[in-house]
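Just scan this pair:

***
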Amino acid sequence: MTITAPRTRPASPVAADTAPLRRRRLRGIASHTGLLLVTLIVIAPILLMVKVSLQSDADVAAHPLSWPAHWNLHNYVAAIRAMNYGRSLYNTVLITGGAALLVMLTGSLAAWPMSRISRRWTKTVYQLFVAGLTVPVFVMITPLYMFMRDLQLLDTFASVILAEAAISLPFAVLFFTSFLKSVPVELEEAAAIDGAGPLRTYWHVILPVLRPATATLAITLTLAVWNDLVIPLVLLTSDSKQTMTLDVYSTIGTHAYSTSQLLPTVVLGTAPLLVVFVALQRHIVAGITAGVSKG
């Protein structure tokens, strides 16, 4: 009498095919959940700031995290009047725009030859620009003040624009040089064959190629110059030339501050930055993608 072992049934091909699909779905759900949690962690302080800015000090003290029973827009009306918001916005946009344009123009002009000429002096100049990134701004305050004083530019927008541009120029040169090294030289050679000189090649070839990198650099410079407090605080003294950060700083008392006065000014000061970021978001993503693909 022979005993035969029971035959094992082969695994179903349908079950074998659905297992990797189920794992991919679980990984997708986990990644989306993680991104959602990170997004909530990032925007939670912003939402809390906006909520508290619409409450009175007594309401915040009584219910710091609860939904406000009464929305108080008087805080923003008082902040706009105290800041002279239109004047502060104009001053900050003028300084930020002027510094950004100056940095992007001079940075691209300096980065172009350093990315094409392989000489000892170009490497030395490039290293000097990179070394400028390591100098803290507080070390340059006194020399900048004395330099602007000798030029009789104290308490002028030009002094702040030139100082902000000088501080941001090393990063722009480093950024543009790295980007241009990945751009083929044949584009410039073709322009030279067509009879284009250096300035025409720069205007019609280099600047269009740098457009994605320029958009990415523009938002970085805007954030840095817009939020800077030290340079305007040292070089500007007139009330009519105050920037957003100086107006926000003026609401902070020596020993205490009022949330109904401080937070509305913070929201009003950062709202234009949010508009700029949303407007340039597509170009920023294109610049990062172009840099990655070229690298």
Observations:
- Residues 13-53 form the longest helix (41 residues).
- The mean pLDDT is 84.
- The CA atoms of residues 166 and 268 lie 28 Å apart.
- The chain has one domain: 74-294.
